[in-house]
Automatic annotation (TrEMBL):
Name the UniProt record assigns to this protein: Lysozyme inhibitor LprI family protein
Lineage of origin: Bacteria, Pseudomonadati, Pseudomonadota, Alphaproteobacteria, Hyphomicrobiales
Domain of life the protein comes from: Bacteria
Protein's organism: Bradyrhizobium zhengyangense
InterPro entries: LprI-like_N
Keywords: Signal
Basic and acidic residues composition bias: residue spans: 463-476
Length: 505
């Protein structure tokens, strides 16, 4: 959709959301938040510490290290291109989040090793930022790249491929830490990405399950390098590689470390979505700007939306526009919360992005499948029907018997949805449920849409029994407080709807 339409839908979604205030807590763009490290200057309740820094910080010299980090960041951000600056700010915010949590542990534990670890991390961050300040504008792919969680080195090989060596370390002075050392071989593909597989270290324990290689790809996104692990959730959670605690740490945005232009020729274009990446409004916007695939998905959604709307009748167009408004809310505010690209970073010191990146990609691709494959010529009930919060698949046999299976989910609580198990017959062109009770489930066409249970919340909540309400039954057995009604749209068969690559529900 065009930028004005997208902004209008986003504004409507934010205003209509009962939980819009949560945007200030963890849904807004990280780059729009405070960039200063506060653990030396503020108490745990947010109040300022008299004297400028806590005794804990002064005694260990942390206040000076913090000042050095902030000075290095200020020098580096001034050199960052405008479309990369929010991503660089986000990286610093994430570093600050981890160091803030680590500081609580270090002060409470009062152990020399932890205190020294924190000193080392602060010193290293200042050094890394100084190197990144010199790296903006670097051409090619080879050389060092870094972010708040570690670094990678890319080297060209004699065969024309590239070798990637990564070392990620989330030990920030606290008792929580992950470490991942990883090697991979990649080569150029037709889609602009360099792709290949990792070379895992094998476990030495007798009888241990071998560590499997997983797919990985990387690509320049303007002045950044985007690296993506393409693994199943089981693979990245339990890789069995003794040198890599969590594969999920590897997925992320990396910045060039020092200006060492490579001799290799590589496309360094920044793939822009339909909105301005210099001013991302939500954390989801930031993640889309960080990833060429997600940005391309956003463009594709825009094209599909523009192409579809003129084909639809007025009623279907109004219904789909309303559904799109809710879908924009689902993408931007990310309910359920685990769809949010920074969600894991807010709930754990173990920062990684593979969860959010893959689920956002699946959410976009599912919507693209609906808009591009919108079956506006469909007659009758049979087929797949999709909405922002529901999916149902209907089969109609030659004798007119109908079987409908599906699910409606709550964006605020994905476990509290409704299961659709509807059966009946088509008689005189009208669906009649096989249920022998009052208030049976209904299926009916409304222009290009499918309506389940009349869009009537009272009707859609309860099936009435025969004997003084003794046989009453909630239509949503998993959550009796929500309505089973839904308005859905015709989608052609698609793997992105039937078998999404990530668990988006």
């Amino acid at each position: 959709m065009s930028r004005p339409v997208r902004l209008a839908l986003l504004a409507a979604a934010l205003l209509s959301s009962a939980t819009a205030d949560a945007m200030d807590d963890f849904m807004r763009a990280s780059s729009s938040g405070p960039l200063a490290m506060t653990f030396c200057a503020k108490n745990s309740d947010g109040s300022k510490i008299e004297g400028g820094a806590s005794k804990f910080c002064k005694a260990n010299g942390y206040d000076k290290h913090v000042a050095a980090v902030e000075a290095s960041f200020a020098a580096a951000i001034a050199k960052a291109p405008a479309n990369v600056r929010p991503l660089f700010k986000r990286d610093q915010v994430w570093f600050n989040e981890m160091i803030q949590e680590a500081a609580y542990t270090v002060e409470e534990a009062d152990e020399a090793e932890l205190r020294q670890n924190m000193t080392n991390v602060l010193r290293q961050r200042a050094t890394v930022l100084d190197d990144l300040a010199r790296g903006f504008g670097r051409s090619g792919l080879t050389g060092g790249w870094a972010n708040a969680f570690g670094g990678i080195t890319v080297a060209a090989t004699e065969t024309g491929s590239y070798r990637l060596d990564a070392e990620l370390n989330s030990d920030y002075g606290s008792d929580k830490h992950w470490h991942c050392t990883l090697t991979a071989n990649v080569k150029a593909g037709a889609d602009g990405w360099l792709a290949g597989v990792t070379v895992p270290t094998q476990p030495s324990e007798p009888g241990a399950k071998p560590a499997d290689p997983v797919s990985i790809k990387l690509r320049r996104q303007g002045d950044t390098l985007r690296v993506v692990i393409l693994a199943s959730e089981e693979q990245w959670s339990f890789s069995n590689d003794p040198d890599c605690d969590r594969l999920g740490q590897v997925t992320g945005t990396y910045f060039a470390s020092a200006k060492q232009n490579g001799t290799d020729k590589i496309d360094t274009a920044f793939v822009s979505p339909t909105f301005d990446c210099t001013r991302p409004e939500t954390a989801t916007d930031e993640e889309i700007c960080a990833d060429p695939d997600l940005a391309a998905n956003d463009q594709r959604l825009n094209r599909a939306w523009k192409a579809l709307l003129p084909r639809l009748d007025e009623a279907t167009r109004r219904g789909l526009t309303d559904d799109q408004r809710h879908w924009v809310s689902a993408q931007s505010l990310q309910y359920p919360e685990f769809l949010h690209p920074a969600w894991e970073k807010q709930t754990s010191a173990m920062h990684y992005t593979v969860f959010g990146r893959d689920r956002l990609d699946s959410l976009q691709r599912e919507r693209i499948a609906l808009l591009e494959g919108f079956d506006d010529k469909r007659a009758g009930l049979a087929g797949t029907w999709l909405a922002y919060n529901a999916v149902i698949r209907i089969t109609v046999d030659k004798d007119g018997s109908v079987d409908a299976q599906g699910w409606k989910w709550s964006q605020a609580d994905w476990k509290g949805g409704c299961d659709y198990e509807i059966s009946g017959d088509i008689k005189g062109g009208t669906f009649q449920s096989s249920e022998q009770r009052k208030n049976p489930d209904t299926l009916e066409r409304d222009h290009g849409m499918l309506v389940v249970n009349r869009l009537d919340d009272v009707f859609a909540r309860k099936r009435e029994g025969k004997n003084d309400n003794a046989d009453d039954e909630a239509k949503c057995k998993r959550n009796t407080t929500i309505s089973s009604t839904a308005r859905l749209f015709p989608a052609k068969p698609s793997e992105d709807i039937d078998k999404p690559t990530s668990a988006i529900r």
